[in-house]
Protein: CBS domain-containing protein
Organism: Gelidibacter gilvus
Amino acid sequence: MKNIQLVSAIMTTKIVKLKKGDDLERAEYLFKKHKIRHIPVVEGKSIIGMLSYTDLLRISFVDAVDDDGEIESLVYNMFTIEQVMAKNIVSVSSTTSIKEVAQILAKKEFHALPVVDDGELVGMVTTTDLINFLIIHL
């Protein structure tokens, strides 16, 4: 019988988070500072949404990007985190197998999954985490 590896072995537990009251400028700052592409939006310990860097790019307009590729804050003032974030979140538990996580990410159009145990956000797993796992184990 194969040893089933759990997502808890590869998930990130140092999670960068946003609150729904945060502004989009803070979100952009966190994306760039931590070199990440997905940030869960939380209320207390529960996840209520997911914001991706692509979500920010979607709301920006071509003329709202300056010569350095920075998104002008004027665009950010038009929207709230809650308006831009994805609300129908697919999540997994820390006891989900890595194979199941890979299957979910392969079928869906997103590249990160929150890991939730008993209603509490405990980690994040991304396609990059899966690729790094494969590099080590192949």
Summary: The helical segments are 24-34, 53-59, 73-76, 81-84, 98-107, 127-137. DSSP finds six helices and five strands in the chain.
